[in-house]
Design a protein that fits this description.
The complex is a heterotetramer, with one copy of chain A (748 residues), one copy of chain B (237 residues) and two copies of chain C (89 residues).
Chain A lengths: L26 H4 L4 H11 L5 H10 L2 H4 L4 H4 L9 E3 L6 E6 L2 E9 L1 H6 L1 H17 L4 E11 L5 H21 L3 E8 L8 E11 L14 E6 L9 H5 L20 H16 L3 E6 L4 H13 L4 E2 L13 H6 L5 E6 L22 E6 L19 H5 L23 H10 L7 H4 L10 E3 L6 E4 L6 E7 L2 H6 L1 H17 L4 E10 L6 H21 L3 E7 L3 E2 L2 E2 L3 E10 L16 E6 L9 H4 L12 H16 L3 E6 L4 H13 L3 E4 L8 H6 L5 E6 L4 H10 L4 E7 L3 E5 L2 E4 H16 L4
Parallel strand pairs in A: 4-5, 15-16, 22-25
Antiparallel strand pairs in A: 1-2, 2-3, 3-6, 4-6, 7-10, 7-11, 8-10, 9-11, 12-13, 13-14, 14-19, 15-19, 17-18, 20-23, 20-24, 21-23, 22-24, 25-26
Helix pairs in contact in A: 7-8, 7-10, 8-10, 14-24, 17-18, 17-20, 18-20, 21-24
Chain B lengths: L1 E7 L6 H9 L4 E7 L10 E4 L19 H11 L3 E5 L1 H8 L6 E3 L7 E9 L14 E8 L3 E3 L2 H9 L3 E6 L18 E5 L5 E4 L15 H7 L9 H5 L1
Parallel strand pairs in B: 1-2, 1-3, 3-4, 4-11
Antiparallel strand pairs in B: 5-8, 6-7, 6-9, 9-10, 10-11
Chain C lengths: L2 E10 L6 H12 L4 E15 L3 H16 L5 E10 L6
Antiparallel strand pairs in C: 1-2, 1-3
The chains are: A alpha+beta (748), B alpha/beta (237), C alpha+beta (89).
The structure holds adenosine-5'-diphosphate and magnesium ion (MG).
Magnesium ion (MG) binds next to loops of chain A.
């Protein structure tokens, strides 16, 4: 990487982006540092750094590793709470499930690598997030994914979809971690810049929790896992720190190829090392490889580390120290073991004797840093400089993006419902997720297709629920509301299976933060998450930021992906993903004031406009009410009203068991019937309840000040929504089930 | 107590799932056995679970057949021990020549995770006693589950009653739609001639509890508690 | 037009990691074969009619570019052979 | 000993359906290529030292029998080539 692109920092010291790639003699410019940063580096090192040192600082202070643009903002997110065991800053966050068990989780992006090579990009994205979780000593129990593509009628998009889905499938299935839930959006802004966000959830007993802190002087440092090759030299750190542009191909690092089999070995080896209590500190190797992992462990543990680069096992011949230190080869873990741990104590079965290709190798020992020859490179904690680099607070007032509202000629509403059910925004994602193993591990009580996935915990009565969501269509109009509503939807999805939300993880996918618009979106997104977290009482325990998602200077819609984790005291008493029984009552609870502005129905008709309504206090009341109703034992089924509005929510409820219902549209003052049926808005849940309990439920609702409409009853084989439609459930099943495969041109 | 060994290769991932499912059956004691140090003496049955034994590179199960564990498995099977291979276990048993045919890439070219139905065609195995003609609902999770064989082998396997499981619809009809991977003659599982070695693509361990959506797998593994101790050979040969 | 079979060999580029090759190496070594290295690729045999060998080669190269190889991580090579066509349906 | 590269080509037997070949056929046709048929196989390139070409060929055939091909479904062919060995470590 000789002519690396530069990164701009503070306004004052901003190098001209046009100078990117031009030959420059300045070593710091080559590694993407500004003049101000270079001065800081010289101060820290106390002399003129050598080439390797410049490269290491360049990688560590890249946008991807140093969070230059987002660090200060991220501090606004609430991260404390009674249940939080590990907050942001570690490989993953954790919440306490009680009785000594922690639930560890995090979401991460692999957007740029997936744009370059969808299959390998998505596969290595899964690999990376798994490592983040088992680096904490936790056994991964579930993977979730949130995917954002362009419209599916484009051949390139279809290739991207099948590459990404194939990569997730091959990697996750081979390691044997179930993929239990996800989210897929199809919007034009993602056509050339797809987003691939993966989340992993794991369990660990409190005393087995490991972190990257705790390395002690004199302890041995091991590199465990794959050999180090030339793949992806500084790939993630550079690739993810700029916009993808034409003509940069030459500069792209070679594509990293994942090996899920080695990941499985590495997973078992790491957990066995934890089990024999050999580990002082552990850190997976991700962006900026050994440079980042070693400096983070050293910085967080407050010790120096001496690395003999010559002892790192390599896959390629003639690698330089710089290449070894910056390689992003997959499936590697840095482990600091107790001084008295010998190689013999490392579990031989998981790595050494089975797969001689994948050796456990001791390659250095850590010592207290001495002398000026060893610069201390602190990961996120270094230098205090990146705070100052956060972009200024441009006071932009957002106006709605232009919309072209011209409703298509009136059609029969029933046909419109079928069309909507089959549309990419709404249709079942089964054609994609059925290539993910969702049942391995035998803990999946509810898998993909439900409002949230439910996992039991063997040997315990309780369980967890997990969901992942995003609201790019809303965020395009109002990034604050889009982010807040993503938190609301993810937690509401947990509530719809009967789980109490505990905490969230967030992945901020945004455009170029150097442009005023991007900076504004970033700040609004963070503030939206904060507002929703405060209102709903859920902290943020981990997360990830992906910037520079843009195509030819046009940013993607700001997209906050929110992964939420909740708890069920008795997992057997979750709300099942059924239609309910004939005779059961169908209710709508919450907010009935919906609109077509950011709806899937509107989008298909060229309508995309504000304002977006948002009442987070009402959302909190709705969630409390649904949980109270479930606790009272009155809820037979529940479904979140989301894409496609009430009409789709009712249809999806009927589709579950193939049982119909007879309901009447709620009368909402000022709303046209089509808007009532297809309009979208936050804070609505359809409940199916035992008719004998209606009065009790209404009392509960009144206590929480939640509005409830009784819509009708379950039964028959038609979805009848008076006075607008009556459709056979079988045709709904076909439209919803086959729509996406048809749109993608996949055999089904 | 029936003593059941659960084999673990480096990339196996269903071993703990099987151990948990078998813990629900009265009268069964299980042990997870590492393939490289595998000694099956003293066990009544062996399970070869699902997973990606060696990453499934080259062909699923191809590299695993070289393991000492597979050699020991062959000895155990020859002496009449009951052996059940599920998913990757079935692939390994076929690669090792312990079962007829081979498992190749699904006709869809994709991994499939789903619930399917199988009809039990033979009760001449320690795992299907009393289940003949029953239609069971079980999960699958595989990318290389299409059972194939040359026409002579297929005819011989059918004639000898070695087809143990066949993909069907819920009513028990072996239709093309009910076949999730394009397997020849809808074959989901076969046995060796003696009947003591059985392989199937579905996952009985994933449906042994109502909480997980079904209990038909329990009916298969529960049979192990009734397996004649150490003398399966005499009964099934 | 005569019938040709194009053999399109698709291989991961030299600098791209080949986990399948690594796994096969390990297995061959465990069988006692002292090998230096294993790389794996795909072979795609396409039969079609073309005016002559040159045309067949061009056509096969177009298939390689348009579909068969992923240029980000793979390279391909084409070999073309004429086949006797007594009975091609 | 000189270094050889054995190219082991593994093909599914003719009577085994090749869905991947079928899928590629379909895709090539939809791109406008008028093709008759597509079959897919695997190429495995193994580098190793051997006394001479004959020994190399025998060694490669053993690898084919022991591991690389499954005779139930596949057949294989071996081609061997000597390589210049300025610097094989
Ligand atoms: N990429 C995916 N992988 C796995 N499951 C998915 C994926 N996308 C969607 N799903 C599942 O499909 C169902 C519907 O998804 P979605 O429409 O996003 O739900 P919601 O409206 O509740 O957000 C959910 O159960 C979700 O978990
Ligand atoms: Mg969603």
């Amino acid at each position: 990487m000789s002519a690396s692109p530069t990164i701009s920092g503070t306004k004052a010291a901003k190098p001209n982006r046009e100078s990117r790639g031009s030959a420059s003699a300045d070593p710091h410019v080559e590694v993407g540092l500004t003049d101000a940063e270079a001065t800081r580096v010289r101060e820290i090192v106390g002399r003129e750094p050598n080439r390797l040192e410049w490269a290491m600082f360049g990688a560590m202070w890249s946008e991807h590793c140093a969070y230059k643009h987002s660090r200060k903002l991220l501090r606004r997110l609430p991260s404390a709470g009674p249940g939080v065991a590990v907050g942001p800053g570690e490989n993953a966050g954790a919440v306490d499930l009680g009785d000594g068990l922690l639930c560890v989780f995090k979401v991460e992006s692999h957007n740029h690598p997936s744009a370059v090579e969808p299959f390998q990009g998505a596969a290595t994205g899964v690999g990376g997030i798994l490592r983040d979780v088992f680096a904490m000593g936790a056994r991964p129990v579930a993977v979730l994914n949130a995917l954002f593509f362009g419209p599916p009628d484009d051949a390139r998009v279809r290739r991207t979809v099948s590459g990404v889905v194939g990569g997730i499938s091959v990697y996750g299935n081979c390691v044997g971690i179930p993929d239990v839930a996800g989210h897929v959006s199809f919007e034009p802004c993602f056509a050339e810049n797809p987003l691939v966000n993966a989340m992993c959830v794991g369990f660990v007993e409190r005393e087995r929790l490991r972190t990257s802190t705790g390395a002690k002087p004199g302890s041995a440092v091991y590199l465990v896992g794959s050999d180090t090759g030339r793949d992806g030299i500084a790939g993630a750190s550079l690739l993810a720190s700029f916009e993808l542009g034409a003509g940069d191909d030459r500069k792209r690092p070679s594509v990293q190829v994942g090996n899920p089999f080695v990941e499985k070995l590495l997973l078992e080896a790491t957990l066995e090392l934890v089990a024999v209590d050999a580990i002082e500190a552990v850190q997976d190797l991700g962006a900026a490889g050994l440079t980042c992992a070693s400096s983070e462990v050293a910085a967080k543990s407050g010790v120096g580390m001496r690395i003999d680069v010559g002892r790192v096992p390599r896959r390629a011949r003639g690698m330089t120290a710089l290449e070894v230190m910056l390689s992003e080869s997959q499936e590697r873990m840095l482990v600091v073991a107790h001084g008295d741990t010998t190689l013999a104590l490392l579990p031989p079965r998981a790595l050494a004797d089975d797969a001689p290709e994948y050796d456990v190798t001791q390659w250095a020992s850590s010592e207290p840093a001495t002398g000026p020859t060893l610069p201390r490179i602190g990961g996120l904690s270094l230098g205090g400089s990146s705070d100052d680099m956060a972009q200024g607070d441009q006071a932009l007032r957002e106006t709605a993006r232009p919309s072209t509202s011209g409703a298509s000629p009136l059609q029969k509403i029933g046909l419109e419902l079928l069309e909507l059910l089959a549309s990419p925004a709404v249709a079942s994602r089964r054609t994609l997720y059925r290539s993910f193993d969702s049942m391995v591990g035998t803990d999946t009580v509810l898998g993909p297709g439900a409002d949230a996935a439910v996992l039991r915990i063997k040997g315990r009565p309780d369980g967890i629920a997990v969901a992942i969501d995003a609201q790019p269509r809303v965020a395009a109009i109002d990034p604050f509301a889009g982010a807040a509503l993503a938190v609301a939807e993810a937690t509401r999805n947990l509530v719809c299976v009967g789980a109490t939300p505990l905490a969230i993880t967030d992945c901020l996918n945004l455009g170029n933060p150097e442009r005023p618009r991007g900076a504004y979106d970033l700040e609004q997104t963070v503030d939206g998450i904060r507002a929703a977290c405060d209102a709903l009482g859920v902290p943020v325990v981990s997360g990830n930021v992906s910037l520079y998602n843009a195509t030819r200077g046009v940013d993607i819609w700001p997209t906050a992906t929110i992964g939420a984790v909740g708890r069920l005291a008795d997992v057997a008493r979750h709300i099942p993903a059924t239609t309910g029984r004939p005779g059961d009552l169908v209710l709508l609870a919450g907010n009935a004031l919906v609109s077509l502005g950011t709806s899937a129905y509107g989008a298909a008709r060229g309508i995309h406009e504000g304002p977006v309504s948002l009442d987070l206090a009402a959302e909190a009341r709705l969630q409390r009410f649904v949980l109270a109703a479930h606790a009272a034992g009155a809820v037979r089924a529940a479904h979140d009203r989301s894409d496609g509005g009430l009409g789709v929510a009712l249809a999806e409820l009927a589709i579950r068991d193939g049982v119909g219902m007879k309901v009447t549209l709620p009368a909402v003052r000022g709303l046209d019937k089509r808007v009532t049926l297809f309009g979208e808005g936050p804070s609505g849940v359809v409940l199916v309840v035992d008719p004998a309990r209606e009065a009790e439920l209404r009392a509960l609702a009144e206590r929480e000040q939640v509005a409830v409409w009784t819509l009708g009853t379950i039964g028959g084989d038609l979805l009848e929504v008076a006075p607008v439609l009556g459709m056979p459930v079988a045709s709904l099943v076909r439209a919803h089930g086959g729509g996406l495969a048809a749109a993608l041109g996949r055999a089904d | 107590m029936t003593r059941v060994a659960i084999l673990r290769y480096p990339g196996t991932w269903s071993e703990r799932d099987f151990q948990h499912a078998l813990s629900l059956v009265e009268g069964i004691a299980t042990e997870i056995v590492w393939h490289a140090e595998c000694d099956l003496r003293g066990f009544d049955a062996a399970i070869v679970p699902g997973g990606f034994s060696y990453g499934d590179y080259l062909r699923a199960g191809a590299i695993a057949k070289l393991s000492p564990g597979t050699k020991e498995l062959r000895r155990f099977a020859d002496e009449g021990g009951a052996v059940l291979g599920s998913c990757n276990g079935f692939q390994i048993l076929c690669e090792a020549g312990l079962l007829p045919g081979a498992l190749v890439r699904n006709a869809s070219l994709e991994y499939r995770c789903d619930w399917i139905h199988v009809r039990i065609e033979s009760d001449r195995t320690p795992f299907t006693t009393g289940l003949r003609r029953q239609v069971l609902r079980m999960p699958i999770g595989h990318g290389e589950g299409r059972w194939v064989a040359d026409p002579d082998t297929l005819a011989a396997v059918e004639a000898a009653g070695q087809v143990v499981f066949r993909y069907t619809d819920a009513a028990g009809a072996a239709t093309a739609d009910a076949n999730p991977n394009g397997a020849l003659a809808n074959i989901a599982g076969v046995s060796n001639r003696a009947g003591n070695v059985v392989g199937l693509m579905p996952h009985p361990e994933r449906c042994a509890e109502a909480l997980l959506g079904g209990t038909d797998g329990y009916r298969i593994i529960a049979n192990l508690a009734k397996a004649p101790h150490g003398t399966a050979a005499a009964v099934y040969r | 037009m005569p019938r040709f079979v194009a053999r399109v060999l698709i291989r991961p580029k030299a600098e791209i990691r080949d986990p399948q090759g690594e796994a096969i190496s390990g297995a061959l070594r465990s069988l006692g074969h002292e090998i230096a290295d294993v790389r794996t690729g795909k072979e795609i045999l396409v039969s079609f009619d073309a005016a002559d060998e040159r045309a067949a080669r061009d056509e096969a190269a177009r298939m390689g570019d348009e579909l068969l190889a992923n240029p980000v991580i793979e390279s391909y090579a084409v070999e073309v052979e004429a086949v006797r066509t007594e009975a091609h349906a």
